[in-house]
Amino acid sequence: MRGHGNPRWSSGGYGPPPTGPGVLGLIVVSVVFFVMQRFAPGFTRALALDPRVALPQLKLYQLVTYIFLHGGTFHLFINLFVLYMFGRELEARWGTGKFLLYYFVSGIGAGLITALFSHYPVVGASGAIYGLLLAYGVLFPNRYILIWFIIPMKAKYLVVLFAVMEFFATMSGGGDGISHISHLGGMVFGGILLAIWHLTKSTKKRSQSAYIHDLTGGPMSTANIDRILDKVLREGVESLTKDERRILVRAGKFYEKK
Question: 2-206: which CATH topology?
Fold first, then answer.
């Protein structure tokens, strides 16, 4: 898969953004782990995600370490290639900290789903990568992706296609040596985190809008509170309406007697 077009990136330039420290660090660690797998006997067995022991024996570190292990050169290459292609733009958009949080939530979530519903050891960053694919489709829905470098498809349709394929592959039991449930789990946990961020952002915007409204003429604006206080001085407390009393109580200018 390959991004297509000449998008503008967050720092103001055109074309693909430079590789950020988050993406670069993930690539380096994955390569180091792959080398260790080749030369250190038992390295893969100790750090792979094994559903038979990860949760029952509380070897929870496997939910993280399995992400950096791979089953072969092609497995490593395809995952790191997709990480490089999509991760750069997501890191440029979010920043390194938020990008890494999303990557590991997707990867660990995929591992958790695998540990709960599978019985076979798993290695690879594919769960986290599918989470990145989902995020890319959400943030850049109309960006064209070249599937197998040939077929152009908008990112939003590609995400739906992959999600459907992984769902049916999971339901059919696989049998191809690929942990489809991990892929699906990465998309699910990535989607949950995206939804949380969206709701938090929307709530924050509403709070800011209400605050600005109060400052510039809403019920809690300084001008309105001064008007009510002037009314008290002129006509007495008894002249206040219920709404005016509530406004003064909220502003700390008046205390109701219980």
Answer: Rhomboid-like fold (1.20.1540)
